[in-house]
Amino acid sequence: MRRDIALLIASRAIRSLAFGYLTFVIPLYLKSIGFSQRSLVSTSSLHQYPQQP
């Protein structure tokens, strides 16, 4: 049972580190490929308001 608890703690620690790493790396990657929040806002606003005929 102690082994199971140790594995559970280790797996949760690895998962937490991975999520922390990804939350830092993904924005840097998106910035490096030229993705910006403005482009997201401009494309999403097109879908919200349909054009009037």
Describe the protein's architecture and organization.
- The chain is mainly alpha-helical and 53 residues long.
- It is built from two helices and no strands.
- The protein is elongated, with a radius of gyration of 21 Å.
- The termini are far apart.
* Rg estimate, integer Å: 21 Å
Helix content: over 70%
Write down the overall geometry: elongated
Q: How would a textbook summarize the main sheet?
A: none
β-sheet strand percentage: under 5%
User: How many runs of DSSP E, i.e. beta strands?
Assistant: 0
Order of helices and strands: HH
What count of helical segments does DSSP give? Answer: 2
First-to-last CA distance: 69 Å
The parts where pLDDT drops under 50 for at least 5 residues are none
Structural class: mainly alpha
Mean pLDDT over all positions:
80
Brief synopsis:
81% of the residues lie in helices and 0% in strands. With 53 residues, it is mostly helical.
Provide key terms for this protein.
mainly alpha; elongated; 2 helices; 53 residues
Task: Itemize the secondary structure elements and their pairings.
Layout: H1 2-32, H2 37-48
